[in-house]
Design a protein that fits this description.
single chain; 332 residues; alpha/beta; Rossmann fold; six-stranded parallel sheet; six-stranded mixed sheet; 12 helices; elongated
Length: 332
């Protein structure tokens, strides 16, 4: 059955569209429409199960009650968990979440930003690659509400929720060294991303301050287009160079490396230790053992929603930067 429109209802009741619209928007008394006419309209819409066009209502209000969530990969447990919490917090405020994954590709991120803008989302929460600053700068100049998390760009002013990347990684590597680590390799993706670069810097500083040989050949970059296979290949390189500890700049790499160790290097599982930025429940029982740096995802989600809400409600430009302290989970 075709859904009834206000025009259909007005024609069938012999009333004007304006009268029907006023009653359906609770303005019958204000517009001095008789109680009898109001009851007639309301009885009829209940009878035909009238559903208002939410898109039209939203456009009329100038809002769509939707928020965009843009991350590199929603299958990454960190982004998935943050997104799930954000979704619940936004639901309490009457918003729905629309999700997009960029796969660390500039053109895909730009296409998704265009899609979100065209769909007139009320705001964005995003972990950007920042490879196309001009697009973000245009949105910022237009006053488009945005909150960035997990990643930042030193040349882009915005609202950020971040963690202590360098300090936390340095602390984790120092702990591994105290536990006997001597030859330490590192696997990362996309090192040009500022926050990941800070994690690599923390690793380097820890080696230097502990007077360990820093061999940059042991810093291996994983191909994000084939992340599982590339992790397997780069891990094999480190195993062939007899590292006793591997540091990962995110938990997805560490999880793939746990799998690869059990496939390709079972003889070294007991002698090699892993250190991961970001935590996974898998690490509670995995072999090799994994020390992990757990980001406070509850607080990241809460601050992201609270700051975005402030930005959307404010007539003035809001710019906040919050730095959170992650926690080292020791399993070694």
């Amino acid at each position: 059955m075709k859904k009834k429109s206000i025009k259909d209802i007005a024609q069938e009741l012999g009333l004007s569209k304006t009268t029907v619209s006023f009653v359906l928007n609770n303005k019958g008394d204000e517009k001095k429409i008789s109680k009898k006419t109001q009851e007639r309209i309301l009885d009829y819409v209940r009878e035909v199960n009238y559903q208002p066009n939410q898109i039209a209502k939203s456009l009329k209000k100038g809002t769509t009650n939707t928020i965009g969530y843009l991350v590199p990969d929603i299958s990454n447990p960190f982004y998935a968990k943050v997104g799930r919490l954000i979704e619940d917090l936004l639901a309490d405020k009457g918003y729905h979440l629309i999700i997009g994954s960029t796969d660390e590709k500039q053109e895909k991120e730009e296409a998704l930003l265009n899609m979100f803008e065209n769909r007139q989302v009320d705001g964005l929460i995003l972990a950007s690659s920042f490879e196309n600053l001009s697009r973000l700068e245009i949105l910022s100049a237009q006053g488009f509400p945005m909150v960035f998390f997990d990643r930042e760009h030193p040349d882009f002013t915005g609202n950020y929720i971040l963690v202590e990347n360098k300090k936390a990684m340095k602390k984790a590597v120092n702990h591994a060294i105290k536990k006997g680590a001597g030859k330490i390799g590192l696997l990362s993706i996309t090192p040009n991303i500022y926050s990941l670069n800070l994690r690599i810097e923390g690793y380097k500083e820890s080696l230097e301050e502990n007077n360990l040989n820093r061999d940059d050949n042991l810093i291996r970059i994983v191909d994000n287009a084939r992340i599982k296979e590339s992790t397997q290949e780069q891990l094999t390189y480190l195993m062939e160079n007899d590292v006793d500890t591997v540091v990962f700049t995110n938990n997805q790499l560490a999880a793939f490396a746990v799998w690869a160790m059990n496939i390709d290097h079972k003889d070294k599982i007991q002698s090699v230790k892993f250190v991961s930025f970001d935590n996974l429940e898998l690490f509670d029982y995995s072999n090799p053992k994994v020390n992990s740096i757990a980001q406070p995802i509850d607080w990241i989600a809460k601050y992201a929603v609270d700051i975005l809400n402030d930005v959307m409600q404010s007539s003035e430009r809001v710019s906040k930067r919050i730095i959170l302290e992650p926690k080292l989970i020791e399993r070694l």
